[in-house]
Every structure is written in structure tokens, then in C-alpha cells.
């Protein structure tokens, strides 16, 4: 995706869930897309039935979420990734960032979903990022510590993914191809914008969108 000239690309972290929607659900993703956000971000795991579904936490009420049934996932509003991608077809100008929470989920993603200009994958796993790059994905390594490994994994046009706390340690050139997470502070968002950051992932997509578009 191309960065707008007047602002960074804005990514809705787990959808728009700050008001009435639960994060990582279809209503939260649709609400973010309806806002006009550039991209949504979702977390994926691989269920025991071999389906990829959206959920951040490993445990759901004390149970391994990857082992619950399809009916239980539906009861808790945890959508299948295929349903999220189907929703995205109604918003062809907007994109999606898919975070693989496990190596198994990452492998399934790369084996089942084709990369495209508006699809990105991110992970804390350097293993996943390496293989995603080899498969032609636009991929960003989520780095909460120092930037050294992220730099090693960011050859060519692949994206860096520093945390908001670590973003100041990156050069302006690196920020120009970075998706910084998770930026909820307007002052920090403006500072990173002035340094030319490519994208900002935020829990406040409505506020950041109003700020940059206002």
C-alpha cells in the first residue's frame, strides 16, 4: 500500500473496539473499515480442527483457546480468518495486517493465503518473518527490544515493526518503512509523522484519523 502524502497509513489494532465492539471480532473489523481506516490488524491462531481463527490470548476462561470447538469459538465471537478476508472483499481499497501468534498459525497462513499488495503479516517470530519473506509476503518483525535483529530481517523493501517505545532508536530512513505499534498518544503520533513514519498501529483509529484528516 502507498503511504498518503499528508499522513502515515493508519492501522486499527484488532479493529475498532474502543466503544461497543469486542476486539478481534467481525463487528470490530467492520466498524474500523467503515471509519475509513487504511488497514485493520488481527491476531491469528490455529485451532485443533485446523482452522485459522482470530484471537490474541492463548487462554479463554482458563482453557487453551486453540483446543476449543468451532461452536465455542462462534459463541465467543472469534471469527475465522477466511471470514475476515471475505469481509475485506467489500473494502477493496483497504488492507489487512495479520499477526501470526504461533509458528503453526504462521505456517498455515503462508500455505493457504496468497500475498498481495494490501496484505501484510507480522510476528514476534523471526522464523515466521523469514519464511513469509521467502513466500513473497510483505512482512514486519515485531521488535520490543533493540533494533538489531529487526534490521537483519528487514532487507529490501520489507517492513520494520518497532514498538512505540523503541521507535526513537530507528533512523528516519528506517521509520519510512516501519509500522510502529501501538501508538495511542497524539503527540507521539505527530512526532513520528514528522520523522516520516510509514504506518501507525493504534487502539484509537477514530481519534488518529480525525487528527490527521482534520
CATH architecture term: Alpha-Beta Barrel
Helix content: 25-40%
Counting H and I runs of at least 4 residues, what is the number of helices? 9
CATH domain class name: Alpha Beta
Form type? globular
Tell me the Rg in angstroms.
16 Å
Main structural class: alpha/beta
SSE string: EHEEEEHHEHEHEHEHEHEH
Rounded mean pLDDT score: 94
Beta-sheet strand percentage? Answer: 15-25%
Distance between the ends: 22 Å
CATH superfamily: Phosphatidylinositol (PI) phosphodiesterase
Largest sheet: 9 strands, mixed
Uncertain stretches of 5 or more adjacent residues:
none
What is the total tally of β strands? 11
Q: What does this 3D model show about the protein?
A:
- By secondary structure, the chain is α/β, with parallel strands linked by helices.
- The chain has one domain (9-213): Phosphatidylinositol (PI) phosphodiesterase (TIM Barrel, Alpha-Beta Barrel), CATH 3.20.20.190.
- It is 33% helix and 22% strand.
- The chain is built from 9 helices and 11 strands.
- The chain has helices at 26-35, 70-75, 81-88, 103-112, 126-134, 148-153, 172-175, 186-194, 205-213; strands spanning 9-13, 39-46, 52-54, 59-60, 63-64, 95-100, 119-123, 138-143, 159-162, 179-180, 199-202.
- Strands 1, 2, 3, 6, 7, 8, 9, 10 and 11 form a 9-stranded mixed β-sheet that branches. Strands 4-5 form a two-stranded antiparallel sheet.
- Helix 4 (103-112) links the parallel strand 6 and strand 7 (119-123).
- The longest helix has 10 residues, at 26-35.
- The chain is globular, with a radius of gyration of 16 Å.
Amino acid at each position: 500500500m502507498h503511504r498518503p502524502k499528508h499522513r502515515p497509513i493508519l492501522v486499527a489494532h484488532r479493529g475498532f473496539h474502543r466503544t461497543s465492539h469486542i476486539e478481534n471480532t467481525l463487528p470490530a473489523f467492520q466498524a474500523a473499515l467503515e471509519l475509513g481506516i487504511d488497514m485493520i490488524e488481527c491476531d491469528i491462531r490455529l485451532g485443533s480442527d485446523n482452522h485459522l481463527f482470530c484471537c490474541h490470548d492463548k487462554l479463554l476462561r482458563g482453557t487453551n483457546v486453540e483446543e476449543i470447538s468451532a461452536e465455542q469459538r462462534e459463541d465467543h465471537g472469534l471469527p475465522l480468518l477466511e471470514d475476515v478476508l471475505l469481509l475485506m472483499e467489500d473494502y477493496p481499497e483497504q488492507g489487512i495486517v495479520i499477526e501470526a501468534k504461533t509458528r503453526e498459525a504462521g505456517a498455515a497462513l503462508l500455505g493457504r493465503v496468497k500475498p498481495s499488495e494490501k496484505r501484510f503479516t507480522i510476528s514476534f517470530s523471526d522464523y515466521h518473518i523469514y519464511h513469509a519473506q521467502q513466500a513473497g509476503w510483505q512482512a514486519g518483525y515485531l521488535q520490543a527490544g533493540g533494533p538489531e535483529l529487526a534490521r537483519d530481517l528487514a532487507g529490501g523493501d520489507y517492513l520494520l515493526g518497532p514498538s512505540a517505545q523503541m521507535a526513537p532508536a530507528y533512523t528516519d530512513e528506517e521509520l519510512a518503512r516501519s509500522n510502529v505499534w501501538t501508538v495511542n498518544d497524539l503527540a507521539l503520533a505527530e512526532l513520528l509523522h514528522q520523522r516520516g513514519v510509514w504506518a501507525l498501529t493504534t487502539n484509537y483509529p477514530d481519534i488518529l484519523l480525525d487528527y490527521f484528516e482534520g
